[in-house]
Design brief:
This protein is α/β, with parallel strands linked by helices and about 400 residues long. Helix content is about 40%, strand content about 20%. It contains 13 helices and 17 strands. The protein has helices at about 1-10, 45-50, 55-65, 80-95, 105-125, 140-145, 170-180, 200-215, 235-240, 285-300, 305-320, 345-350, 375-390; strands at about 25-30, 30-35, 40, 95-100, 130-135, 165, 185-190, 190, 200, 220, 245-250, 260-265, 325-330, 335-340, 355, 360, 365. Helix 3 packs antiparallel against helix 10, helix 4 runs parallel beside helix 10 (about 285-300) and helix 11 (about 305-320) runs parallel beside helix 13 (about 375-390). The longest helix is centred in the first third of the chain and has 20 residues, at about 105-125.
């Protein structure tokens, strides 16, 4: 049966993904099954999307109720799920306002526009440049590819959007040297995900934030992958003790439905007026209802403490595997450095043995559902240990 699906996929879907050799059919929490009935433990959660795991009953009920009530409405009208989710996000993060989009790349596009509009209003049209970090990843649109600080992505799709420059991560002097009189914002991931699960140095982040604030340069933090509890706090910026001007979210926010958000701090919350930015599907009622359920669960007392504990447990167990050289990351966003095996070969072997796992350059990458059970963790780790021992 799986062979038929794979053949049809190749026939009808553009081949822009390097798929693993598995056709998924159903799942429950961090366990899923393919069309042939084979079981897998999932350490990926759809690249950090299924924050409550597969087929969570509370999440599915919230989605079904909203779908049966109002599945979509134009942003020319008010809808209650969007207001409820925005209010919850403001209450949880301290941001002033929220703009909803459909993905992480769209959230970053919106943040870029907001930063440039803020600077245009105060300083004129020349102050438009944005500094990002080398090895960063911010999306796959023409503009967010330009914002991405990896040369491998700056190909094929010329001309890329102008106005971006790239500083060395964890090098404050290089960042200062890269900033010019026309810089309007600095944009960074606090843990570079696609770049290899590399956390930034806390002192660098705090000093960079202070330097930007002194010069009225906006700080944009891309929390598309780190946000909504992934690192054991709701936002990764909480680990660093900073308050960005703009924060971007997506992935885990909808628990499996497409939604992203930009969190606006007070100083920038009024910068975009009617007609200056928009999206047909942003704030979709069903996606927002899903997001409300995710926030309700993730923000319950003790939930994030459990995420942090599971992250510590995963790290400890991973470091006991002889083939593992080290583990980077925070909470349940972990990158595993291997001694002799390639990440691509190891990930392929894991799938063959019943474990779904990701790669990030030369590392294996773990982004399990936040609700993964200890039993599921142990089953997945046992498969990984056996694969790495082979």
């Amino acid at each position: 049966m799986s062979t038929d699906f794979k053949q049809q996929d190749k026939q009808y879907i553009v081949g822009s993904y390097g798929r693993f050799d598995v056709v998924l059919k159903k799942g429950k929490n961090a366990t899923c099954w393919d069309v042939d009935g084979k079981e897998y433990i999932d350490f990926t959660s759809g690249i950090g999307v299924n924050s409550l795991g597969y087929a969570d009953e509370g999440w599915a009920d919230a989605v079904a109720r909203q779908a049966g009530c109002l599945q979509h409405a134009s942003n020319l009208y008010y809808t209650t799920p969007a207001v409820e989710l925005a209010k919850a996000l403001c209450g949880q993060t301290g941001c002033d306002k929220v703009f909803f989009v459909n993905s992480g790349a769209e959230a970053n596009e919106c943040a870029i526009k907001a930063a440039r509009k803020y600077s245009f209003d105060k300083y004129g049209k020349e102050r438009t440049e944005i500094v990002t970090l080398q090895n960063s990843f911010h999306g796959r649109t023409v503009t967010t590819l330009a914002a991405t600080g990896q040369d491998v992505f700056h190909n094929f799709f010329f001309p890329f959007t102008e106005g971006f420059s790239y500083a060395k991560p964890n090098d404050l002097e290089n960042l200062k040297a890269t900033i010019t009189e026309n810089t309007c914002a600095v944009m960074m991931e606090l843990i570079q995900g696609e770049g290899g699960v590399l956390p930034l140095n806390s002192e660098f982040v705090r000093q960079a934030a202070a330097y930007c604030k002194e010069r009225d340069i906006l700080l944009i933090v891309d929390e598309v992958q780190t946000g909504v509890g992934r690192t054991g706090t709701f936002l990764a910026s909480e680990h660093y003790g900073i308050t960005p001007d703009l924060t971007t979210l997506a992935k885990g926010l909808g628990g499996g439905l497409p939604i992203g958000a930009v969190l606006f701090g007070k100083s920038v919350s009024g910068v975009l007026g009617p007609g200056q930015h928009g999206t047909t599907f942003g704030g979709n009622p069903v996606a927002c209802a899903a997001g409300c359920e995710v926030l309700r669960r993730v923000c319950q007392p003790g939930f994030l403490d459990e995420v942090a504990k599971k992250g510590v447990y995963l790290r400890e167990k991973l470091t006991q595997i002889p083939e593992v050289e080290g583990v980077d990351g925070e909470g349940m966003m972990l990158g595993v450095r291997l001694k002799t095996k390639t990440s691509a070969d190891a990930a392929k072997a894991c799938v063959q043995n019943g474990l779904l796992i990701l790669t990030a350059k030369h590392k294996l990458r773990l982004l399990p559902p936040l609700t993964i059970t200890m039993e599921e963790i142990d089953k997945g780790l046992a498969i990984l240990a056996n694969v790495l021992a082979g």
